[in-house]
# Entry
Amino acid sequence: MSDLARQLFGDVPAKRLALIVDLDDTVCTSFACPLRAALDVLLRVHRQRVEVHYVTARTEVSREGTDRFIMEHKLPGYRNVHYCPKWQAPRRHKAELHARLAREYQVIASIGDLDEEEGEASRLAGVTFVLVDRDNPGAAWAAVAQLIEAAQGFCVEGVS
Ligand SMILES: [Mg+2]
# Structure
């Protein structure tokens, strides 16, 4: 920001932190079978500091089951499930959402199992992407945990 802009508008407040998360084969398998590694990380996220956004190829048809899954496991970001419009290709949907979220937030990372969808969307939006290996999802979640830790996005024990 130029000195003139700072004089006119003051310091621009820092954007809020966000984490972009795919659902299928990233947080769960077979629609509602949770991946322990994902839950372990997501449940430690400091909810006031980091907004979790789910960007999914699921459509509105899956809303009820998705809501139930998120509530059942007490996951953060209950209100932030971005369903794919029926008329739109998942790739395009994910690209648009990543671009929008990258404008509105300081995105810590995007995590997902499809490089050609969320991976490509992340690169276009300038967001750090962590690819989930379906045979070993724990590794990707450990990498994301490090990024969240670095952004001070976890709850610290003894501090509310
Ligand atoms: Mg997926």
